[in-house]
Amino acid sequence: NYGTLANATLVLDGGTLGLDVSTFQADTIEGVLTIGDGDTVVVQGGFSITGIDGTSPGTIALTGADSTLEVADAETLNATTITIGNADDVSTLQVDSTLTLGSGSVIQTTSGFVSDAITGAGSVINNGAIVADAAAGTLIIGTTDFTNDGLLSVASGADLQIQPFDAFINAGTLSVASGSLATIESVNTFSNTGAIVVNGGSLQVFADLQGSGGVTSLSDGAQVELGASAAAGQDIQFLDGTDSLVLDDAADFASTVAGFQQGDSIVLTGFGGASETYADGVVTITQSSSVLGIPITTVATIQMEGDYTANDFSTTTDASGDLILTVDVLPCFAAGTRIMTAEGEVAVEALKAGDRVVTVTTGKRRMRPIVWVGHRAVDISRHPAPEKVRPVRVQRGAFAPNLPARDLLLSPDHAIYAEGVLVPVKYLINGTTIRVDETAQHVVYHHVQLAQHEILLSEGLRTESYLESGGRGMFANGGQPIVLHADFSHIAWDVLGCAPLKVTGSEVERIKAHLAKRAKPARAVRGKSKSLRASSGC
């Protein structure tokens, strides 16, 4: 059965077309157009489809094995749902010219263990949603050009392959869910000016990542592999300390990395044995080798957005000869520090889950239950980077009379709350009232975790609670393999922190000036002392 229907309205009230090849030209269909086994339906000349009432969204269902919907000329489908998928064979949406999906249109794969395809010599412009469903095997997008101005979603358990012949333009959102895989094959142009959200899934990109203003975010154990170059206009954002970025072409990686924290990793393929340095917001990786006796130096640079120091980064080489860059740092209290609780001040080592501690995060005292208390003994004399773990001593009265009430020992990156911000204590060292304890050779560190990041009172001074970001391996009781040499330093507050993290700026300068005034000889500061301004909330 072959035929052409032109300039007509066809009402399908629960029926199914049984044509082998059918052409709809400038027609309107009301109802569900179902394309069965081996059937091909061609649309052209201003085709449209609605619900049976003539106003609600219409549906085109490619349910048959080897079924095809062919778009023969430039068509715009508004408020249309196209479902692609069967359990036995390939279903295909073939685009010969330009197919534009309006904002209310959806293409969704629905079933099948083999590939379904959006293919052809034409172009697809998506202003609606294209969804690779979990049970649908692999969705292949292989038109000449593909532009995503809407939503392109890969559900948990599904696979998506984007392999246009010429260009993939993402100005909307590409979402990759947990347990799914999205692959962007090598194309002439891959431009990202929108958002790529990888939430627990995997993304492989084998094309040059181009464009300006694009953001790729990683969370919940996401893995992103960039197989080619990445432009300076792109941002890679780590969100929760559980994610991995693999750079197969690290020498041509020019994008900015933000939110990189303890628990995250950046893998530089083939850079095993290289060395890393950090200065002015840039991690530089240098690898020296030789070919036929000729020295060769390969350099990769990674622009890091955040507050780091030269000692915050470390590298290891894995069995494959790849370099793994991490931030192995975490803030803690030293044993003996007294924390204000519902029962009064209690030494941190005596606290346990369920105990209620006093928080002042909102400016008012509130009782919060402890979720977990970590502990770890550190032999400073044997540590490969002792400056990362040697405690900082905050002298009694450094901030105000009896603030702290006793000398307070903190790890270098444990943050103190003042002037409405959190400042790692190492940035407040003045050599007198706040100084590194050079005599310490052994220290036991503890930290207190609440349901969320909060401000505690330690020896009366406002300090942060533990912010979980995959760092429990630093502690002996963390329920994870223990890190051989624990580092208790920097962590990212950007996503879950209760107050801004500052290491420079007007707030930090005011704190330093206040500390300097307090550090003068006692006769100069007797009497009432102005305390630092306290914020009413975080």
From TrEMBL:
Name recorded for this polypeptide: Hint domain-containing protein
Sorted UniProt keywords: Glycoprotein, Signal
UniProt source species: Acidisoma cellulosilyticum
UniProt xrefs under Pfam families: Hint_2 (PF13403), Hyphal_reg_CWP (PF11765)
Domain Hedgehog/Intein (Hint) per the UniProt entry, residue ranges: 331-468
Domain Hyphally-regulated cell wall protein N-terminal: 102-324
Domain of life: Bacteria
